[in-house]
Design goal:
- The complex is a heterodimer of chains A (663) and B (84).
- Chain A is α+β, with helices and mostly antiparallel strands and 663 residues long.
- Chain A has 22 helices and 10 strands.
- In chain A, strands 1, 2, 3, 4, 5, 6, 7, 8, 9 and 10 form a 10-stranded antiparallel β-sheet that branches.
- In chain A, helix 17 crosses helix 18 (525-549).
- The radius of gyration of chain A is 27 Å and the shape is globular.
- Residues 653-663 of chain A have low confidence and may be disordered.
- In chain B, 73% of the residues lie in helices and 0% in strands.
- Classes of the chains: A alpha+beta (663), B mainly alpha (84).
- Chains A and B meet through helix 5, helix 11, helix 13 and helix 15 of A and helix 1 and helix 3 of B.
């Protein structure tokens, strides 16, 4: 798709960034001490903190990634919503109050409350840094993805822009302004998502033959010739007849095209060859129109055989996302109720898009995007996305992979450093509890809306077949430029806020855990703040660089990675320290080290990483499945218990928390 | 001790309850996904109902927990603004 910068969007965007920076300047004057910088003096009202939880948590991955995944694959994206929300149950019922009671600035404080050990601070500090940096990468990539269509800048400019703005926010004011920015963004995100959902329901569902740009996708069939590739002559005659043209010529399937479900028809009088998808259905063989993206080795890009344009009206990929069949004789439903929306979709048929990448011998690649008419009943149940195919296979490893992902989502939330530090911005345990409840209400409501927004985008005719992350903003575009501008600006602020929280968490870890405690450097209050600001700048620059390097990677893939590492490294120590009074210092340190290295190692050796990061054959991967959680989280717990039992004599007896056997 | 400990036990109880339901949903999805295709009330399938159900239940349990803890711990949550 060709994106053009819209003046409204740019104005809206600049307005948002301006307000955010202004707020930071204003609030920053108040936060001079380290207690103010890291924990906002514990003065944030619980309600504000609760919405700020939502602001922190509903990152680019939640908003852009989940909506995009639902728009492209249906219900599967919603599984992330369910898992991400369930994680808050762990945060509220298990972690919130003890965290607040035992800690001061970072979650290492809480872990270390019993032991006063440099080793624990070191391990927790490193793990905070590792998880934060992994979580930062998808946020930065998301920023670049957003800025491209919004302002018409290249990806790296977007990343640098976000990085610089966030560094400014964090350096100026620390936790106070970050919290208020998160509050603002969390509220706006929920309000505008609600508006979008109401609009989707009012618009209802409509039968179309193509996307919002007016292009109709053609499907022909059933064909008499069931084997288009080998029965060429008879097939060519049939095609020519059905199209009413003199000659149709099939291009022989050679090289990368061999044995693929595509047939190329030679273009006449200078037109490029057209690629058709051979679609075998119950009642015969059909040919359906595809879209192709060809990248030559020298960097030139062809769309549907023609050089890609840079302005509207020039060659570009067509917009997709249409509903091909409504129940009965209906062609348009009109406004739908919130449940009626699903029951109507259940009996409809939606055209989803698959893709296949062909690598040619000359180093060029062709990605063929082809239509997949899919019944609504299929879309509204899990198992369409490749990552969730385990649901419908008999392969046990696929199923374990799915369980592992859902476990990591469940356990990851309460282990994320930037979420945990938010427990120190309120005044007491009751406020920590109340703000978590507000957070659950806000986040839960938003996640319910994701299903409407994703399915709304799926049937809006505005999708970009190459970029699922843009689905939600593009859906807004179908309702008007103002809404697009507002949603894009909010999405951008979403990235700003989450990145700010992560950078603060990292800065806290460096200042308190690594330099202050582990290395024993004595610092005055002002020096601490200064060091934290320097650390923020350094982490910010690292994030900018990684955001540019990893721009090709899928946003939600990277977030899953961060959740797995967080849950494996942090959760066992956190839970056991709070609930098992025989936990020892050595047990905590070893389990953090084992959890972090095993989950990271597993991911680096998994099929997904082999394919998407190293560009190797995924069959060579050593890890039997992709998601490490189901192995490495229990491994972290086992390590902690085993080492603690071995080192009982040297471990200090626990006084606080109150003894309660069995974690 | 008592309030803190009571809160923790209630929290753990609710946690285990939710874990069973979440675990049940995930296991059902992994090993018997066919059951989620069945249409429930209002022509909406059980996959959508259970997803919404888990989200709403999380909020309901959170509110119950907040309400129970509030009635027992008014002392520690009294409004003493200004204390860090």
């Amino acid at each position: 798709m060709i994106y053009e910068a819209s003046p409204i969007a740019v104005a809206c965007f600049l307005g948002f960034v301006g307000v955010t920076l202004g707020l930071s300047f204003f609030l920053g004057r108040k936060a001079k001490s380290s207690a103010g910088y890291f924990a906002a003096h514990g003065q944030i009202p619980w309600f504000v903190n609760g919405v700020a939880f939502a602001g922190d948590y509903l990152s680019a991955a939640s908003f852009l990634g989940i909506c995009g995944m639902i728009a492209f694959y249906g219900y599967d994206g919603f599984l992330y919503s369910i898992g991400y929300l369930a994680g808050w149950i762990v945060a509220l019922f298990v972690v919130a109050e003890p965290m607040k009671r035992l800690g001061k600035f970072t979650f290492a404080d809480a872990l270390d409350a019993r032991f006063q050990s440099k080793g624990i601070k070191l391990a927790a500090g490193i793990s905070t840094l590792a998880v934060s940096v992994f979580y930062l990468i998808p946020q930065m990539v998301g920023a670049g993805v957003l800025v491209q269509p919004l302002l018409g800048f290249p990806h790296w400019v977007g990343v640098v822009l976000v990085g610089t703005t966030v560094i400014l926010i964090v350096v100026m004011a620390g936790m106070v302004s970050t919290t208020w920015v998160q509050f603002l963004k969390g509220s706006l995100l929920v309000v505008f998502s609600t508006i979008l959902t109401v609009m989707i329901l009012f618009r209802g569902l409509t039968e179309e033959e193509g996307g919002a740009d007016g292009h109709h996708f053609v499907t022909i069939g059933p064909l008499k010739q069931t084997d288009p590739v080998s029965g060429t002559e008879a097939f060519e005659a049939e095609l020519a007849e059905s199209w009413g043209i003199a000659v149709a010529k099939v291009v022989p399937a050679e090289g990368a095209w061999t044995d693929k479900p595509f047939v190329r028809i030679a273009g006449s009088s200078g037109d490029p060859d057209a690629v058709w998808h051979i679609d075998t259905r119950d009642d015969g063989v059909y040919l359906s129109e595809t879209q192709t993206l060809h990248k030559a080795a020298d960097g030139t890009v062809l769309v549907n055989g023609r050089p890609k344009g840079s302005k509207k009206g020039e060659p570009e990929l067509f917009q997709v996302g249409h509903l091909s069949d409504l129940p009965g004789e209906m062609t348009e439903t009109g406004p739908l109720g919130p449940l009626e929306f699903f029951s109507t979709l259940e009996e409809s048929e939606v055209v989803l898009w698959g893709n296949q990448k062909l690598a040619h011998e000359d180093g060029s690649t062709t990605t063929v995007y082809f239509q997949k008419p899919t019944p609504g009943s299929r879309i509204l149940q899990p198992g369409t996305h490749p990552r969730f195919q385990g649901i419908h296979s008999d392969n046990l490893l696929d199923k374990i992979n799915l369980l592992s992902l859902m476990l990591a989502l469940f356990c990851g939330t309460a282990s994320l450093p930037h979420i945990l530090i938010r427990y120190y911005t309120v005044k007491d345990e009751a406020s920590a509890r109340k703000s978590t409840i507000v957070g659950i209400a806000t986040i839960g409501f938003f996640y319910v809306l994701t299903l409407y927004m994703g399915l709304g985008a799926m049937t809006s005719g505005t999708l970009d077949v190459t970029n699922s992350n843009m689905s939600a903003p593009l859906l807004a575009y179908s309702e008007g430029e103002w809404l697009f501008a507002a949603i894009s600006a909010i999405a951008f602020t979403t990235v700003l806020g989450t990145v700010a929280g992560l950078i603060l968490a990292s800065a806290g870890a460096v200042t308190h855990d690594l330099l202050g405690s582990a290395m024993g450097i004595q610092m005055t209050d002002q020096q601490q703040v200064l060091v934290a600001k320097i650390a923020s700048v350094v982490v910010g620059i690292i994030a900018i660089v990684l955001g540019i390097v990893f721009q090709e990677l899928n946003v939600s893939y990277l977030v899953g990675w961060a959740f797995s590492v967080a849950a494996s490294a942090n959760l066992p120590s956190l839970v056991m320290c709070l609930f098992w009074n025989r936990t020892t210092r050595q047990g905590v340190i070893t389990s953090m080290a084992v959890g972090m290295t095993s989950s990271l190692g597993w991911i680096l050796l998994s099929a997904d990483t082999f394919e998407k990061v190293y560009g190797l054959d995924p069959a060579l991967a050593i890890a039997p499945f992709t998601q490490p959680g189901i192995v490495t989280i229990p491994l972290g717990f086992l390590t902690l218990v085993a080492v603690s039992l071995k080192t009982q004599a040297t471990g200090l007896p626990a006084r606080d928390p109150a003894p309660l056997e069995n974690g | 001790m008592s309030i803190e400990r009571r809160n923790r036990q209630i929290g753990l109880g609710l946690f285990v309850f939710y874990l069973l339901l979440y675990g049940g949903f995930v296991l059902l999805m992994a090993f018997d996904a066919q059951r989620l295709q069945v249409l429930g009330p209002a022509g909406v399938n059980l996959a959508v109902w259970s997803g919404f159900g888990l989200i709403v239940l999380a909020l309901v349990l959170a509110l119950i927990y907040g309400w129970i803890c509030r009635s027992g711990s008014s002392a520690d949550s009294s409004d003493t603004e200004g204390q860090a």
